Amino acid sequence: MPSENDTVDVAAAERALREKQADLEQRLGRFSAIPERGSNLGFGKRIGDGTIEAVDRLNQIGVGTRLESRLERVERALEKVEDGTYGTCDVCGDAIDPRRLKVAPESTVCVACPLPAR
Ligand SMILES: [Zn+2]
What is the per-residue pLDDT across 18-42, written as a single tens digit (0 to 9) for each? Predict the structure, then answer.
């Protein structure tokens, strides 16, 4: 009988992935609502705060980019759930360590393989 550590609970992984996907989409929706840099919306309400707000905005743009690439990985992992290849490496086809999947359900490659370039 396999122990909990060497089986992949695909149903649980799918639930976790769907939650991550919904959360990321919501956060990205908020980020994409931020006005473009150079727009005056949201600026100038309080004198002296503009610089800090601009820095915050740049930081948020960086976070938004990372969220997008995370969302791509989550969506790819969900594709694998749907086509029945969840838990196998996209590159070499070997099984991905279930402990790795537990920590990061969006893993689509094994520890030995680099993430494919996009
Ligand atoms: Zn691999």
Answer: 999 999 999 988 665 555 555 555 5
Tell me the residue range of the domain where 21 lies.
4-103
Could you tell me the distance, in angstroms and rounded to a whole number, from the CA of residue 112 to the centre of ligand 1? 5
The DSSP output letter for 114 is P
Top pLDDT among 34 and 112 is at 112
Q: How far is the CA of 96 from the centre of ligand 1 (A)?
A: 7
Q: Which residues lie at CB < 5 A from ion ligand 1?
A: 89, 91-92, 110, 113
| 117 assigned to some structural domain | no
Task: Assess whether pLDDT exceeds 90 at residue 50.
Answer: no
Q: Is residue 116 part of a domain?
A: no
pTM: 0.68
Instruction: Compute the distance from residue 103 Cα to the ligand 1 centre, in Å.
Output: 17
CA of 94 to the centre of ligand 1 (A): 6
**Backbone dihedral angles phi then psi of residue 14, each to the nearest 5 degrees:** -65, -45
For residue 43, what is the domain's CATH number? 1.20.120.910
Q: For the chain, how many structural domains are there in total?
A: 1
Cβ neighbours of 13 (radius 10 Å): 22
